Amino acid sequence: MGNVLTIILQRLTLGLLTLLIVSIVIFVAVNLLPGDFAQSILGQGATPEAVASIREDLGLDQPMVTRYFDWLGGVLRGDLGTSFAQANFASFTGTDSGATTVAQQIAPRFANTMFLAMITAIIAVPFSIFLGVLAALYRNTVFDRATNIFTLSSISSPEFFLAYILILFLAVLNPIFPSLSNIFEGMPFGERVEKSMLPALTLTLVVTAHMMRMTRAAIINLLASPYIEMARLKGLSPMRVIVKHALPNALAPIINVIALNLAYLITGVVVVEVVFVYPGIGQLFVDSVKIRDIPVVQACCLIFATAFILLNLTADIMSILSNPRLRHPK
Amino acid sequence: MHGISRRGLLQTGVAAGVLGLSGMPLRAQTRGGKLTAGLSGANTSDSWDGRTHSDLFMIASAHGTVFDCLTEVAADGSLKGELAESWEASADAKTWMFNLRQGVTFHNGKSFGADDVIESLQMHVAEGAKSAAQPIVAAISEMTKVTDHQVQFTLANGNADFPYLMSDYHILMFPAGQIEEAIANGIGTGLYQVQSFDPGVRMVATRYADHYKGDSAGFFDEIEYIAINDNTARMNALMTGQVDAINRIDFKTEALLRANPALRIQEVTGNQHYSFPMLTDTSPYDDVNVRKALKYGINRQEMVDKILLGHGQVANDTPIGPANQYYAADMEQLEYDPDQAKFYLQQAGLDSLNIDLSASNAAFEGAVDAAQLFQSSAASGGININVVQEPADGYWSNVWLKKPFCACYWSGRATEDWMFSTSYEAGVPWNDSQWDEKDSARFQELLITARAELDSEIRRQQYGEMQQILRDEGGVLIPMFANYVQAVNNRISSPDMVGNLWQMDNARMAERWSVA
């Protein structure tokens, strides 16, 4: 087991380095975009004096390197800063008391995104493994082909298109689910689930193909091995052969793909959230990029990057743990 | 046609007839129910601070629902008192006495009076405050509390429109001494009291039981505004019945909305206009003949048809629109005429003209297309326009007011003077054509005299002349007024006359609409 711990430590260290690089890239990229916070918040009212006064208030008149290290210093102390928008309002009212920090601003949005990811995962993971197993069992039949065509065409379509198709069939023609997922704090759980159903189904369509195809391929790959032949010769039913004998050995690659897709559910929801007006972190991210609110953009990116790193790490560890040969290396 | 019984139809028919005869509004407005609207223009940086409001979501939430101003522009464009009951001016329109409504309370129970007015106005000129209403308040040289419910304003220069300016959606009335708290929690004197507000997501308010407007306004029990910035999502929400009303419908899918019998489309022409300002202090636009050539080189009707898809009206290079009191509707319309364009080019001593036109869809939806249409219509007049597509980001800082010829939009103003003094008075920061005495001393002179003129007939002549000057010589090409187009579910009833100053019945649907 010491082996696993070393890997975890190594990966976490590398992960921190990745986060640092991500933060630099994002910081530079956002600064390269034309316009800055002062200009975009003032819009048509961007007189030179007003722009200068906002820049001065927010420290945007400082050189980029200084601003980056100020921000980094804050993050190392666990302070993600105050969003420009909030700080700007605070300067209006004259006090800092009303300003919310980036962390406070992101927390409820992040919780919403996690909620959606969770619902999607609950639907998508069993669904795609089930489909994958069935496709392996009835490989090269009409069922297999149909499943493949369906999942591949849904992964190949843009998300907003899938979203509108679902809205058309499940909200407009057959009003089963609401097309607007405006969940809010204090909404009863049942209603929350109902409102999140269409975005969850859209995301399910997006992630199913990958997991289902991997399940199918991994199982089929094993079906040629001698021990499967043995099981068949014993007279076991095909279903039992696949679920009891093939699946456990195929888990490592499947878990890997599941983890990758879960990461996607957190980081890739931007479009789906905008289409369904779901108040998650993706919407906040889009809004913040629009007004060049760098502290919020940075924090969102860090969260996305962390999700990717942690889920990838989990995938590797799970595949080690699920494989006795890796668990007990010679 | 189910849902309406014959008896029900007869009853409402008779009732409507009776009401029609007695001269009362045709639609009796029922109390109760809820209005859910999907509105664009929301942002996570929104707050209850009126000084920062610039787009529909917060204007409808604050100005239209939770807060009040001193005065209010009615749907027909006339001015009526809101928190001010009446007002009178001195003969030079310099001193204004406002009599405030008595017995009004804020949602936290504090009673409303003169101190609240003075402090709420001072917010806009406070040190470091970046209020869009700063120029309005800065023009007040002195505010005096005469009694608890009387305030006297002394202006630096006479302004007959001063009460109109007090209806500005930025100038909300906050409780004195508790302004920070009021900004944090949304405490106003409006018809509805905030229940929950999640910036960029949603606002819910319920009817304030003991409101001074009584039974004459605010018919819903509850208001919910949902932030839907995405056009298609807003359409979907309305089509699937999750919201009762949406603003800014997408013209491309308008036919779908029209085909739905449960919905109706509201369309009003107001002062919102799309423009192409030229800097009159820069060559070649400093030559009035070049400007005239361009005025004849633009095909206005084609722009209304193709850019607005018919949802607008041709304009005459003046920013004064149908929602203004002194709009010169009968002024002769400038028409597309390439020969005239050539003629004025010759007058300017030119055979042909090569110019750059900067455009981006940040200026208005379809601005780049409009610039290209302009390019092709102007070509027959010997004017070669090179369309420069600018990035949308930073357009207002880097292009507008900087490039000599660009695309722009204005939502217009309630009064002529307000519009002119925002963008046509010599030296003001938003003067996007650098229009001043060098172009027309007469215009600037009229601007000052008309401002202090209390006689409405004289003002009509003065503003008429100013519109004529702008049409003939002005530095801003204004080809079209763009309509406000919104859609409403038939579950909700709205008055026959809907305000045209701003989207969604001047953003006052919570006050004026009711359950059908």
Automatic annotation (TrEMBL), chain A:
<feature type="transmembrane region" description="Helical">
    <location>
        <begin position="159"/>
        <end position="177"/>
    </location>
</feature>
<feature type="transmembrane region" description="Helical">
    <location>
        <begin position="250"/>
        <end position="276"/>
    </location>
</feature>
<dbReference type="InterPro" id="IPR035906">
    <property type="entry name" value="MetI-like_sf"/>
</dbReference>
<feature type="transmembrane region" description="Helical">
    <location>
        <begin position="12"/>
        <end position="33"/>
    </location>
</feature>
<dbReference type="GO" id="GO:0005886">
    <property type="term" value="C:plasma membrane"/>
</dbReference>
<dbReference type="InterPro" id="IPR000515">
    <property type="entry name" value="MetI-like"/>
</dbReference>
<dbReference type="Pfam" id="PF00528">
    <property type="entry name" value="BPD_transp_1"/>
</dbReference>
<keyword id="KW-0812">Transmembrane</keyword>
<dbReference type="Pfam" id="PF19300">
    <property type="entry name" value="BPD_transp_1_N"/>
</dbReference>
<keyword id="KW-0472">Membrane</keyword>
<keyword id="KW-0813">Transport</keyword>
<protein>
    <submittedName>
        <fullName>Peptide/nickel transport system permease protein</fullName>
    </submittedName>
</protein>
<keyword id="KW-1133">Transmembrane helix</keyword>
<dbReference type="GO" id="GO:0055085">
    <property type="term" value="P:transmembrane transport"/>
</dbReference>
<feature type="transmembrane region" description="Helical">
    <location>
        <begin position="115"/>
        <end position="138"/>
    </location>
</feature>
<comment type="similarity">
    <text>Belongs to the binding-protein-dependent transport system permease family.</text>
</comment>
<feature type="transmembrane region" description="Helical">
    <location>
        <begin position="296"/>
        <end position="321"/>
    </location>
</feature>
<keyword id="KW-1003">Cell membrane</keyword>
<feature type="domain" description="ABC transmembrane type-1">
    <location>
        <begin position="110"/>
        <end position="315"/>
    </location>
</feature>
<dbReference type="InterPro" id="IPR045621">
    <property type="entry name" value="BPD_transp_1_N"/>
</dbReference>
UniProtKB/TrEMBL annotation, chain B:
<dbReference type="GO" id="GO:0043190">
    <property type="term" value="C:ATP-binding cassette (ABC) transporter complex"/>
</dbReference>
<dbReference type="GO" id="GO:0030288">
    <property type="term" value="C:outer membrane-bounded periplasmic space"/>
</dbReference>
<dbReference type="InterPro" id="IPR000914">
    <property type="entry name" value="SBP_5_dom"/>
</dbReference>
<feature type="domain" description="Solute-binding protein family 5">
    <location>
        <begin position="79"/>
        <end position="424"/>
    </location>
</feature>
<dbReference type="GO" id="GO:0015833">
    <property type="term" value="P:peptide transport"/>
</dbReference>
<dbReference type="InterPro" id="IPR039424">
    <property type="entry name" value="SBP_5"/>
</dbReference>
<comment type="similarity">
    <text>Belongs to the bacterial solute-binding protein 5 family.</text>
</comment>
<protein>
    <submittedName>
        <fullName>Peptide/nickel transport system substrate-binding protein</fullName>
    </submittedName>
</protein>
<dbReference type="InterPro" id="IPR006311">
    <property type="entry name" value="TAT_signal"/>
</dbReference>
<dbReference type="GO" id="GO:1904680">
    <property type="term" value="F:peptide transmembrane transporter activity"/>
</dbReference>
<dbReference type="Pfam" id="PF00496">
    <property type="entry name" value="SBP_bac_5"/>
</dbReference>
<dbReference type="InterPro" id="IPR030678">
    <property type="entry name" value="Peptide/Ni-bd"/>
</dbReference>
